[in-house]
Design brief:
664 residues, mainly alpha, Rossmann fold, Serine Threonine Protein Phosphatase 5, Tetratricopeptide repeat, five-stranded mixed beta sheet, 6% strand
């Protein structure tokens, strides 16, 4: 990715191709294994992964550092050096241009060579500084100091018609380069870009490509010189940010191009492999879509492909971490958390300050129960990227989660504000409005929840939004409208679980318990190995089994729900709704199988439930409380809880569970 650093580090650079060849010959499979070997050889307490990553990304390092790499690979350091055979011609090409136009400079360099040889010998003995690169112009030298500015042709980038990045770059380069202007495109259409540049005697050709993947944009730029193509800069961002920050990005791209033409050492921060960057952006596009197993798997596959191409690509590690965190809902939770943690650690070791890495780290902390740590991460990242919609959306989710745990209205206000800012920051992004709808629903403002959902639907019709809208219809008591929403969900994603799961709820409302049981069972089986880590799904199946006459199956399903909700409680990721549901599950098992839950446990849960209901709860939490009180034979308290739920969601009073209660 592009860097804003103004410093230019000197040193030696290794060839990525030669490094991977040596890695293979040494019997090592990854950079991580090489770092471990170095640590073993040097008896280090930790693996020097950051050093290995810099070397493999062809960044300048101290000669002694490359010696360490070479020693671990069992080769001489000089065999790893990057030179013209590896496709890098910045230094040599610039020297050729400069000395051919200034013959006196060649003689001066020759005369200075002897003096430099003595100096280089001294520095090598002291092993303090890297040897200077004699062919490169002084790093402080500017283009205007060269007699005759290098001539450059900037062709219109592919896919850049709307953005106009290439045109802005052309104007940015004009003051310091001899830039081919108006005639270039006409000749390029007739002869092709490369031949047009040759006909105009341009020494350098700047080409590029702009690709769009959902709301994500990728830009890559290369230089062509003497028939060689050299990637010099790339970046991948949401399209809205790319448009908003175009001027700064043009400056970054220009600096990279100028460094290469001048023969300066590349910037401290290298660029990602172009194909890896594209895989990463497509992975982010899949993560932006509705939460289904297929979309999560597609995202994972793209991030893994990016890492096969470029193992040191920090954002791809972060993307994989985010994808694995989504898998928590559809796979074994502990396994997914461990895998996500591993991916996040790799990303943090490579680029700890990168906002995408911080985003993934905060998401991991949240799922691990460290809400405060997650908020701190996002606050730090937001100082550098205040308008990043992904950071703002996760910030809204975190504040809302803390509100659900503590009931603090200040956190609810913060959550609403962050969700609104995220929606405004990226008009192409539906998730902030989806988040806002969830916040409003649990804050008992159904009208605001429906409004936010409809705005989200206008940005992208998908199963997640439609499922929520169906839930809001049930809340209002509009069962047929809810059915229509869920049928549309199944139409959009026939293999996804959500259509069957919520159609099962509709049939439960209608008293069609066997159909409800079948649909809910099929929804569970549609997720991975049939053991989703979603306690509400298991409770729904339990209710349908119980109403269908399968008491044993109902108890088993509720015990599965208890196992999941207890894990969440232990980790610190559950809220008040989960706490109310937990009491409901135990009370249901106690009613159907009295020996399964002791009197002591029930009494303790009764006290917890009373304490919960003294605070304000969401409509769904009041429903869980009402069900729990019914199973605890406390009908008066159950009726009060149901009345509180019905204030926000009158449709909940139509649940079959409360048929006898509403007759009283």
């Amino acid at each position: 990715m592009a860097s804003n650093s103004a410093t230019r580090k000197r040193g030696v650079r290794a060839s990525r191709t030669r490094l991977y060849h040596a890695l293979s010959q040494a019997g090592l499979r990854s950079q991580a294994e090489l770092a471990t070997r170095i640590a073993d050889l040097e008896q280090l307490e930790s693996d020097p992964r950051s050093l290995v990553n810099r070397v493999f990304r062809e960044q300048p390092v101290e000669p002694s550092s490359l010696e360490r790499i070479a020693r671990a690979l069992g080769v001489d350091a000089w065999t790893l050096y990057l030179n013209g055979e590896d496709g890098y011609h910045g230094t040599e090409a610039t020297e050729s241009v400069a000395t051919s136009k200034r013959p006196w400079l060649g003689r001066a360099l020759a005369a200075a060579a002897a003096a430099f040889a003595l100096l280089a010998f001294t520095l090598t003995v002291l092993d303090r500084y890297p040897s200077p690169t004699p062919s490169a112009p002084n790093a402080k030298q500017d283009l205007k100091d060269l007699p005759g500015r290098p001539s450059v042709a900037v062709v219109d980038f592919e896919g850049d018609e709307e953005l106009g990045f290439s045109g802005t770059l052309r104007q940015r380069m004009a003051p310091e380069f001899s830039v081919v202007m108006g005639s270039m495109e006409t000749l390029a259409e007739q002869y092709g870009a490369r031949e047009a540049a040759e006909r105009l005697r341009a020494q350098w050709l700047v080409g590029g490509e702009h690709a769009r993947h959902g709301r994500w944009s990728g830009l890559r730029i290369w230089l062509e010189h003497d028939g060689q193509r050299l990637p010099v800069w790339n970046e991948g961002l949401p399209a809205t940010r790319l448009r908003r920050e175009q001027e700064a990005l043009v400056d970054e791209a220009f600096a990279a191009i100028r460094d290469h033409i001048l023969g300066r050492q590349p910037r401290e921060k290298g660029i990602a492999d172009d194909a890896a960057l594209e895989d990463y952006l497509i992975g982010r596009m899949h993560l932006d879509r509705a939460l289904t197993e297929l979309n999560v798997r597609r995202a994972q596959g793209r991030f893994e492909a990016a890492l096969r191409r470029d193992p040191g690509f920090a954002r791809a590690h972060a993307g994989l971490c985010l994808a694995l965190l989504e898998e928590i809902w559809i796979q074994d939770e502990q396994w997914a958390l461990e895998q996500a943690g591993s991916a996040c650690r790799e990303a943090l070791a490579l680029e700890p300050e990168d906002p995408v890495v911080r985003l993934a780290h905060a998401a991991l902390l949240r799922r691990s129960g460290d809400i405060e740590g997650a908020i701190k991460q996002l606050e730090t990242a937001s100082r550098d990227e205040p308008d990043d919609a992904d950071l703002l959306n996760l910030k809204a989710t975190l504040y809302f989660h803390r509100f659900r745990q503590t009931g603090e209205t200040a956190d609810l206000k913060r959550a609403r504000s962050a969700a609104g800012a995220a929606a405004a920051a990226d008009p192409d992004f539906w998730k902030p409005l989806f988040t806002r709808a969830i916040i409003e629903y649990f804050a008992n403002d159904i009208e605001a929840a429906v409004e936010a959902s409809r705005e989200a639907l206008a940005r992208d019709e998908n199963t997640s939004i439609l499922t929520n809208l169906g839930t809001f219809e049930l809340c209002a008591g509009n069962i047929e409208q809810a059915r229509e929403r869920y049928l549309r969900v199944r139409e959009l994603a026939p293999q996804a679980h959500s259509g069957d799961e919520f159609l099962g709820l509709v049939h439960y409302y209608l008293g069609e318990y066997e159909i409800s049981r079948q649909l809910r069972q099929r929804a569970i089986e549609a997720l991975a190995d049939g053991s989703p880590e979603i306690h509400q799904m298991w409770s729904g199946l339990a209710e349908s089994r119980w109403r269908s006459g399968d008491t044993t199956g109902a108890v088993q399903a509720w015990l599965q729900a208890i196992e999941i909700v207890e894990r969440d409680r232990l980790r610190g990721t559950s809220g008040q709704d989960d706490a109310a549901a937990r009491v409901h599950y135990y009370a249901a098992v106690r009613k159907l199988s009295p020996r399964a839950v002791s009197d002591e446990v029930i009494e303790k849960l009764r006290v917890e439930l009373d304490a919960l209901t003294e605070a304000g709860l969401s409509a769904s939490a009041w429903v869980s409380a009402a069900k729990a009180y019914l199973n605890l034979d406390q009908s008066i308290r159950a009726k009060t809880a149901l009345a509180n739920a019905a204030e926000t969601c009158p449709g909940y009073a139509r649940l079959p569970d409360f048929a006898d209660l509403t007759k009283q």
